[in-house]
Amino acid sequence: MLATGMFTVQMALLVVGLAMVTVSIAQYGKRTHDWGGIVKMFYKRVEMTTGEYKSYRLGIALLVIGVVIRIVNLTFWPV
Asked: Which CA distances in Å does 48 have to 8, 17, 19, 37, 65?
């Protein structure tokens, strides 16, 4: 029961986090028309607006929390 709930939470966090990162990347690309800058986003600073930055960082945080929940889930309830 708990494993199923954790799996659901994990998948929800991963999907929402990925969606938030994708939306912030799309907003940056539409605003600057620099679609090559999207690749730079992962290893170098690019000029993002406050909203884009918050959405991007929150999305990354949700992805990390989802991965941690996955590790905990596999540790206590191996498949």
From this structure: 32, 18, 17, 11, 23
